[in-house]
């Protein structure tokens, strides 16, 4: 028997290309990145501690830091952080420096100072990861206990859900579908270090709608030392879920059939392996077919999971250091790659040509690469316009970076319109269907 709860209000939109797919949208107008923060391309805009009221700690601590822009709001970022000590066997043990997984919200829209909101009631899992709910007013995360999903209102600091797993699985990662209707969860079971991919209806959070045994997909299982990290992501049309493990496996699963439709490193690019659990992403302009993948040999691939082939790959390795994060821009015009040595590179998804690159060390020479197998850059995210990037790094800081500005009249007009009209009202505008799709950033490819 399941437990239902009143989830946030969901308003969905459909495109003219593929009407069967839908996406939930915020009910507020677009908030641009403040003009006063604009800096020269490639330079540091500003830098904040993910948890600002913590005293400076010793450099040997490893800070697991995460950050995300709010949907349709380029002036506000939510952050979280936990501190760890790296053991001789490379395991991470929780440090007492801070209470793990506290959540903060940074607002850059103030004319004088950066506003910071601190959510004292929130306590994210030891390896914290925040997911913004599509309405922009809530965040979803795993709680401090092993089988706990929480949806928290950013405005009222209230919790909309709290449910323990009735099978006593340990939840490791949660992702919200773009439609707002489903949660995908990576859960570790007690059976020989196995993982299961759980799909929940977001109304019904105790009994899973689907349970996919990951060990049946190649060698997708954990280790005795529990050193691995798992990640799952939804396709833009909420039909597929990609499940990854830091050992190097990446599988794409259909929500409807519960079958693995593509084992990337068996069916598409054999003899390769995923660099980290965070080095893949769906192209937001494709419903579910196009996926970017960063491999251990430091190459970037754009693959078609339906045809099972490589669309393009980088001509040379992305650098001399491992790939830490791969992330598409919101409009799908470029793929961002963050390397272990704090280099950030932007590639074209059409031919994998290098569009732009910069090194964070040029502005922050005190940055040091993380020890052992642990990532230096834990997350890379982009503003709606693609003109700013935000990185979370293992020193406990969140940094804002200026990217090349887009001066095309079409893009400028798009965000001027969205600053006056909320996304839920765009479909009612007297505009051609394809133009509405452009304003809503809906997929234009299968």
Task: Explain what you see.
With 446 residues, the protein is mainly β. It folds into two domains: 41-403, YVTN repeat-like/Quinoprotein amine dehydrogenase (Methylamine Dehydrogenase, Chain H), CATH 2.130.10; 407-445. It is built from three helices and 31 strands. Strands 4, 5, 6, 7 and 8 form a five-stranded antiparallel beta sheet that branches. A four-stranded antiparallel beta sheet has the order 3-31-30-29, with no helix packed on it. Strand 18 (240-245) and strand 19 (249-254) form a beta hairpin. The chain is globular, with a radius of gyration of 20 Å. The two termini are 37 Å apart. The model is unreliable at 1-5 (pLDDT under 50). WD repeats lie at residues 370-411. Residues 409-445 form the SOCS box domain. One of its GO terms (biological process) is protein polyubiquitination. Keywords: Ubl conjugation pathway, WD repeat.
Over all CA atoms, what is the radius of gyration?
20 Å
Helix content: under 10%
How many strands in all?
31
What structural class should be given to the helix and strand makeup? Answer: mainly beta
TL;DR of this structure?
This protein has helices at residues 264-268, 409-418, 433-440; strands at residues 12-14, 22-24, 44-49, 61-70, 73-86, 92-94, 102-107, 115-119, 131-132, 138-142, 148-153, 159-164, 170-176, 182-188, 195-201, 210-213, 230-234, 240-245, 249-254, 260-263, 280-282, 290-294, 300-304, 309-313, 323-328, 335-339, 343-347, 354-359, 377-382, 388-393, 397-402.
